[in-house]
């Protein structure tokens, strides 16, 4: 259980940190919709899917 | 737009909402638990919509669209970082819910006070929330007043907009408490998402031939708006200062964290979380597209806050749709305001009055708590009448001030060594720091108030806790219960 919590925490730290860093570094020169706009969109969808997985067993217990 | 159309549309919205509020209050029982958290009986769909309507305010279609107008794609990034912050609900939501049900907590501050065994902490948390949420609510009222005034060409006075919104917010929250607020929020969330979707499609297809055309125009005419720092507003320090407090919004703002107590089951809570995430992604996309459209169609506006009202005034959108958008924004603001005043009233009842007079009867607490609904609304109205500054700035200042509660919340579930003294110090000093940095314009290392209040409150919580004695017995009982219940419910 602790492992799972730790893994998800690390996963979210990575993706959230990337949302702060990547558009300002690797993508700062790309003035197209396929740059920061697409990156943040994909980031958000990844976060949503991850939350969907984390919460998938809620309410199935006693 | 004719003022009479606006009055008529607002009246129709008010009538519909009041019918919904009357329907919702049928099952209401006199009592604080029912009035403030609907006795923990809200289904997943309504919970998702009330969570969405409470979170998303006039800031989205006015403030966020305005930030997109002046700063470009960075607005999309910081709002989506906020949305990803819902992972905190994935971690803390079931913990709040299980602890709330076991110990009968009605407010998040009541939970903190009990967990750390400190009535002082409970009062401090409640007072701090009241101090920071009044400006946050006031900016919503300012949004409505400005919009109605602007769209009617100045015919509807600014104050009239404030009075209308205050009256509606009071009526629905006062008559049916959380039940009426949750159901009217649901109606309002549906209005918000439907009318904004229709209007954005009108603008995008009417003016650019579709999303491809909009993006192609942006890449040609305003390419720098598609990168950060882009036109300059979203340099990295400004971006972090905006995004960081918002990431923690789901825990720091009691009007949303209190909603972690209301679902009828953990399954309903999951529907709430996932429903909100889908709603939030779509609504953020719409707000950003709205801002980009304004940038292309109205390039010479004096301020970002004018983007939405000016776009609505263009003849691309039929008057009827513009009117619906106005109602959508009004609904977004009112659904946030009445949720906040209901939460603040519950804090007065549970976290202040109940502590001052522990033997006070529940019926008396209920009556007094309910009385604070109109009182807080009137205070908010007076604050809004002062018309302080830019909407987005004040809204974010509130987030920075409320952020200081987060270390104590995290500690409550994950750190047995946390103490009431640590929590109180972090909230008081962190809150004062947020005020000082915001209003004094102080930015050490170029970082904004949200970053500093977060760092200061976390450091103080840890240091002072290590120097003081924790409530070991309660910490053990609380955390053991929550962890055991999480396993039983297959959350972990």
Would you write up a description of this structure?
The complex is a heterodimer of chains A (62) and B (492). With 62 residues, chain A is an all-alpha fold. Chain A contains 2 helices and no strands. In chain A, helix 1 (2-21) runs antiparallel to helix 2 (36-54). In chain A, 29% of the residues are buried. The mean pLDDT of chain A is 92. Chain B has 492 residues and is mostly helical. In chain B, 78% of the residues lie in helices and 0% in strands. Chain B contains 22 helices and no strands. Chain B has helices at residues 3-24, 32-37, 44-55, 58-71, 74-84, 87-103, 108-115, 119-151, 158-208, 211-221, 236-247, 249-252, 254-257, 266-297, 307-313, 319-356, 362-385, 391-402, 406-414, 420-440, 449-467, 472-488. The longest helix of chain B is centred in the middle third of the chain and has 51 residues, at 158-208. In chain B, 62% of the residues are buried. The interface between A and B is large, with 40 and 46 residues.
Biggest interface and its residues per chain? A-B, 40 and 46 residues
Reading the helices and strands of chain A in chain order gives HH
User: Over all CA atoms, what is the radius of gyration of chain A?
Assistant: 15 Å
Query: What's the number of extended β-strand segments of chain A?
Result: 0
The first-to-last residue Cα distance of chain A is 18 Å
- Please report the number of helical segments of chain A: 2
Structural class, judged by helices and strands of chain B?
mainly alpha
Could you state the oligomeric state of the chains shown? heterodimer
Main sheet overview of chain A: none
Helix content of chain A: 55-70%
The chain-level mean pLDDT of chain B equals 93
Number of strands of chain B: 0
Summed over residues and divided by their number, the pLDDT of chain A gives a mean of 92
Structural class of chain A: mainly alpha
Strand content of chain B: under 5%
Low-confidence stretches of chain B: none
The biggest sheet of chain B, with number of strands, parallel, antiparallel or mixed sense and barrel status, is:
none
Global geometry of chain A: elongated
Q: Tell me the helix content of chain B.
A: over 70%
Described by the principal axes of the CA atoms, the overall outline of chain B is: globular
């Amino acid at each position: 259980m602790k492992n799972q919590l730790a893994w998800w925490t690390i996963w979210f730290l990575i993706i959230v940190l990337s949302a702060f860093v990547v558009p300002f570094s690797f993508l700062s020169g790309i003035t197209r919709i396929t740059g920061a706009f697409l990156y943040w969109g994909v980031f958000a969808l990844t976060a949503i899917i991850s939350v969907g997985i984390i919460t998938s067993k809620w309410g199935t217990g006693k | 737009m004719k003022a009479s159309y606006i009055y008529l549309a607002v009246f129709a919205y008010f009538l519909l909402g009041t019918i919904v509020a009357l329907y919702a209050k049928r099952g209401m029982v006199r009592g604080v638990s029912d009035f403030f958290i609907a006795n923990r009986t809200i289904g997943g769909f309504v919970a998702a919509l009330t969570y969405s309507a409470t979170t998303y305010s006039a800031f989205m279609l006015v403030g966020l669209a305005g930030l997109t107008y002046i700063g470009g794609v960075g607005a999309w990034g910081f709002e989506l970082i906020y949305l990803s912050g819902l992972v905190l609900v994935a971690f803390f939501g079931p913990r709040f819910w299980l602890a709330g049900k076991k110990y009968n907590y009605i407010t998040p501050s009541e939970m903190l006070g009990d967990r750390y065994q400190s009535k002082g902490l409970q009062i401090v948390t409640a007072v701090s929330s009241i101090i920071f949420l009044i400006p946050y609510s006031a900016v919503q009222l300012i949004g409505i007043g400005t919009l109605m005034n602007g769209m009617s060409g100045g015919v509807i006075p600014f104050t009239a907009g404030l009075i209308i919104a205050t009256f509606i917010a009071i009526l629905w929250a006062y008559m049916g408490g959380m039940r009426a607020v949750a159901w009217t929020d649901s109606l309002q969330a549906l209005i918000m998402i439907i009318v904004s979707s229709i209007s954005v499609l009108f603008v995008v297809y009417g003016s650019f031939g579709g999303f491809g055309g909009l993006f192609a125009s942006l890449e040609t005419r305003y390419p720098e708006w598609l990168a950060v720092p882009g036109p300059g507003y979203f340099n990295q320090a400004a971006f972090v200062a905006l995004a960081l407090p918002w990431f923690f919004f789901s825990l720091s703002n009691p009007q949303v964290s209190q909603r972690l107590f209301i679902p009828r089951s953990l399954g309903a809570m999951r529907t709430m979380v996932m429903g909100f995430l889908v709603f939030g992604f779509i609504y953020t996309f719409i707000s950003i597209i709205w801002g980009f459209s304004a940038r292309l169609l109205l390039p010479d506006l004096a301020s970002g806050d004018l983007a939405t009202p000016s776009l609505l005034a263009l003849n691309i959108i039929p008057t009827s749709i513009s009117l619906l958008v106005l109602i959508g924004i009004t609904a977004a603001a009112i659904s946030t305001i009445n949720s906040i005043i209901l939460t603040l009233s519950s804090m007065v009842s549970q976290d202040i009055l109940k502590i001052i007079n522990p033997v006070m009867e529940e019926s008396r607490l209920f009556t007094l708590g309910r009385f604070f609904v109109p009182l807080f609304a009137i205070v908010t109205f007076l604050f809004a009448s002062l018309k302080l500054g830019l909407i987005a700035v004040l809204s974010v200042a509130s987030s920075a001030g409320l952020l200081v509660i987060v270390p104590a919340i995290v500690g409550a579930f994950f750190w047995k060594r946390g103490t009431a003294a640590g929590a109180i110090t972090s909230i008081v000093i962190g809150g004062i720091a947020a005020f000082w940095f915001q209003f004094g314009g102080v930015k050490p290392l170029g970082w904004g108030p949200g970053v500093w209040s977060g760092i200061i409150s976390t450091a103080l919580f840890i240091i002072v806790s290590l120097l003081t004695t924790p409530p070991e017995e309660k910490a053990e009982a609380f955390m053991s219960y929550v962890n055991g219940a999480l396993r039983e419910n297959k959350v972990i």
